[in-house]
Write a structure and sequence with these properties.
Radius of gyration: 18 Å
Strand content: under 5%
Helix content: over 70%
Amino acid sequence: MILLGTIVNAVSIIAGALIGILLGKAIPEHLGDSVMKGLALCTILIASGGLGDGENPLITIFSMVAGVLIGEGLDLDGRLNRLGEKLQNTFGKKNGSVSITEGFITSSLLFCVGAMAIMGSLQSGLSCDHSTLYTKSIMDFCSSVIFASSLGIGVALSSVSVFLLQGSITVLASFVAPFLQTAIGEMNCVGSLLLLALALNLLGVTKIRVMNYVPAIFLPILLCQFM
């Protein structure tokens, strides 16, 4: 079932949001930080499993170099950050209270806009491997508990955004999978490198603009035709 990872992710956000609303301000901030760092270590474990999928290191190297040149040129990370700031300013707090819209927009950006959502959805569609989305589900569950304690029910509604975005990517990937058999291993290898970068960011070791590397995931489709 190719949408299983996306369904689990959406349900985890709803469950976490409901718990967060019930607990309110009773959740210590340091606890959430410790849990997220533990999950970052688990992400490293998952990433290490895909690093050996690539058979041609040159494809990985060329994909990463060309991918980041494209990403930096398009300023994907900066554009997304500016979009988030613009939406936050537009739908932010009004009259000192938190609106449902703010909770929805803030959490939708958190859960949808990121390399993990894209890579996990691609893995689900291309090889029915849901491990990345399962890890993302746990992270999103913890995050939604914390966010919903202050932002309310709008956090739960963001599960709709997650389902629509990730589900669409997964379904599209499943349609093209038969034409990408030679490239899937290389794409998994590049994607695993980006997962490793995400984990290092979560641990505070690096500040890699991972979104600028996302184009690298798709370049093996082209490079495998010539290498």
